[in-house]
TrEMBL record:
Biological process annotations from GO: proteolysis
Domain of life of the source: Bacteria
Molecular function terms, GO-annotated: serine-type peptidase activity
Gene3D superfamilies, sorted: 2-enoyl-CoA Hydratase, Chain A, domain 1
Name used for this protein in its record: Tail specific protease domain-containing protein
Tail specific protease domain residues: 33-240
């Protein structure tokens, strides 16, 4: 097999281009970042994308983040962007787990297979197991509060205005990203509703006696419920883009610069 003459960084950029990740200036005031996935293999790519374009991001007046088609992955993928888009800390509602034998067995298996460098995490999971075993069949909040504050220190230099483009395919951690971003005073969400799948999560496989099929069920529900449901509804955009808008990026550009 012929050897590539590309450096490791060049290979990462080629992979990013192939999957549709990108960052470019649209004008003297506005920059576009395209993030089609937050899946685990792309965390390093997103980190590199932001790092390589840090000066452009810090110097632009307006930023468009296109997450259309992003079905999620991990919340780790977008943390590097928060100092540039958030104007304040983020309020996150907690969750409560349904204590069940399947959940407890899964956590015990994790404890046995966890690495030696995860002592704190193992101790936390052991505490959870104890709570679940004492409350089988009940919903359990493993935290001391029903909400938490995620402190975000805004970058000293960052865009003044941010537009995030969303559509019906935005889900999971990408939907979580949109929910967090909506708390920023300088962010507008434009597009259509997201997929609507944040109320119940942390799915596990359940054995229900039929080997030909796998049953996957969530193990927790959000403490936003029942007051603020998202499932089958989605996150509502601030600016709805109907079918007559053919070029969403151009619409966002004109909106920001008009």
């Amino acid at each position: 097999m012929p050897q590539s003459n590309l450096t490791e960084e060049q290979i990462k950029r080629k992979i990013a281009d192939f999957y549709g990740f990108g960052a470019k200036k649209l004008s003297g005031e506005t920059m576009l970042i395209t993030l089609p996935s937050f899946d685990y293999p792309f965390v390093d790519i997103i980190t590199g994308l932001v790092a390589n374009n840090r000066n452009l991001i810090e110097d632009c007046k307006n930023l468009i983040i296109d997450v259309r088609g992003n079905s999620g992955g991990t919340d780790d993928a977008y943390q590097i962007l928060l100092p540039y888009i958030m104007s304040n800390s983020i309020r996150n509602m907690g969750v409560e787990y349904l204590a069940s034998p399947t959940l407890v067995d899964g956590l015990k298996k994790y404890i046995k297979t966890a690495g030696d460098n995860k002592e704190k995490e193992i101790d936390m999971v052991k505490r959870w197991v104890g709570l679940f075993e004492k409350n089988m069949g009940k919903f359990v909040n493993v935290k001391d509060s029903t909400f938490s504050l995620q402190k975000v220190v805004p970058s000293e230099k960052s865009p003044v205005n941010v537009v995030i483009l969303t559509d019906k395919k935005v889900g999971s951690s990408a939907e979580s990203f949109v929910m967090k971003a909506k708390q920023s005073k300088k962010v507008k969400i434009a597009g259509t509703v997201t997929s609507g799948g944040l109320d119940y999560a942390a799915a596990r496989m359940f054995d229900f006696g039929c080997p030909e099929y796998l049953l996957q069920l969530p193990t927790y529900r959000s403490l936003r419920l029942p007051d603020y449901p998202i499932d089958n509804i989605g996150m509502q955009p601030d600016i709805y883009l109907d079918k007559n808008v053919k070029d969403w990026v151009q619409f966002a550009l004109e909106y920001l610069e008009q």
